[in-house]
Amino acid sequence: MTERYVQPDWLTTNVFNRLVALLTRLGLSVYGSRVLAVRGRTSGEWRTTPVNPLEYRGERYLVAPRGVTQWVRNIRASGEGELRVGWRREPIRAVELGDEEKPDLLRAYLRRWRFEVGTFFQGVGPDAPEEDLKRIAPGYPVFRIVPGG
Q1: Residue at 107 is within a domain
Q2: Which of 43, 117, 140, 145 has its CA 20 to 30 A from that of 54?
Q3: What is the pLDDT of residues 42-67, one digit of tens each?
Q4: Closest CA to 33 of 17, 14, 13
Q5: pLDDT digits (tens, 9 = 90+) for 67-112
Q6: CA atoms of 46 and 128, how far apart (whole Å)
């Protein structure tokens, strides 16, 4: 089975992501967004992308609504990175969750971020039956954020 990946369109790559990343670098978090910095798994160079962390039941998570993106591959390889906003850098470790742990988190993520990422969830929304969330869970990597890199 191939891993699910939804490539961003031109507008997302060249306008939206750049605008959110710029605002976040300036210290203006857009609805809780951060810039995730992860070392490239081959180059070792810092790679950055805007992300929408989720706080759920006292813990924080990163969800990959587009599937197995480059940041997912990089964080799987290194297990660590940074969440950035303005000049602040928060070193993190990332622990990937199993599919059975994802449904409640995907539901919470959709409640919080559906306006921005709902199109990537195959018609599944925050009020979907548990079975639907379980069905799509394998296509959405989720990482628990652990402080300290």
Answers
A1: yes
A2: 43
A3: 999 999 999 999 999 999 999 999 99
A4: 17
A5: 999 999 999 999 999 999 999 999 999 999 999 999 999 999 999 9
A6: 37
16 within some domain: yes
* 2 falls within a domain: no
Burial of 123 (0-12, 13-18, 19+ CB in 10 A): exposed
C-beta of residue 48 within 8 angstroms of C-beta of residue 40: no
Say if pTM beats, i.e. exceeds, 0.70: yes
Question: Could you give the number of structural domains in the chain?
Answer: 1
3-state secondary structure the chain: CCCCECCCCHHHHHHHHHHHHHHHHCCCCCCCCEEEEEECCCCCCEEEEEECCEEECCEEEEECCCECCHHHHHHHHHCEEEEEECCEEEEEEEEECCHHHCHHHHHHHHHHHHHHHHHHCCCCCCCCCHHHHHHHHHHCCEEEEEECC
Question: Residue 13 above 90 pLDDT?
Answer: no
Is 21 domain-assigned?
Answer: yes
Half-sphere exposure of residue 21: CA atoms within 13 angstroms, side-chain side: 14
